[in-house]
Amino acid sequence: MDIYVGQKRRHWCLHQDLLCYHSPFFQGHAAMDTKSGTAKIELLEEDPQAFELLVKWIYQGKVDDVSDLPLDKKWDHAYACQKLYVLCDRIEMPQLKNIAIDQFRKGCYEAGLVPGPAEIRPVYDTTPRKSPIRKLLSQIVARQIMDPEADCDAGMYRMCFEANADFAIDVVNALKQGAGGKLFHDPTEETGCFYHEHATSQLCKVG
Fold first, then answer.
1. CA-to-CA dists, residue 22 to 5, 65, 102, 158, angstroms
2. Distance separating alpha carbons of residues 68 and 73, to the nearest angstrom
3. Backbone phi, then psi, for 115, in 5-degree steps?
4. What's the pTM value of the predicted model, to 2 decimals?
5. How far apart are CA 198 and CA 194, in angstroms?
6. Alpha-carbon gap, residue 69 to 89, rounded angstroms
7. pLDDT digits (tens, 9 = 90+) for 150-200
8. To 5 degrees, how large is the angle CA 147–CA 153–CA 159?
9. In the chain, N or C terminus with fewer CB closer than 10 Å?
10. Which of 32-36, 67-71, 82-86, 133-137 has the lowest mean pLDDT?
């Protein structure tokens, strides 16, 4: 079966029976190809690096363990596994999805890095609600926002908030969960001019 991946149409020629064994997505395409007389699939929105990991797993039964990689390679592998997860979600390969998300989590931890808005938005654009990777990413963002040692402001995720309301809801819920049920101070109890529009040094003329 001929498969073309990514905008540059990187080409693989793979055993159709093996692909169909692992994925209902390929089974469906194989059935259509039998009727049409062609055996070609285009995955032009997917990442070739992620597909390369998929091919290795199909033929060798494994994905490289991020723990075995040097520090400067860990994040690249983690991000590739994030894209592998999205790919596997599309082509219905849950076992490899689980491996991918575990490698992604471990890679983030060992590299000391987390995905930013540009890496998060495609996940929310292509995965369904209640997807485990959405839950993971929203918890990562919530922790970054609340971390006093992180140079992070919620505004840096504006593009994600504006593009997908689910992301905003997930982050707020993650913040609530992370607060452990602790109730914030009631802002309506404040007295004085905390919410007035004037300089702090300016005499307040209200009241």
1. 18, 21, 19, 38
2. 10
3. -70, 145
4. 0.88
5. 10
6. 25
7. 888 899 999 999 999 999 999 999 999 988 878 888 888 877 788 888 887
8. 130
9. C
10. 32-36
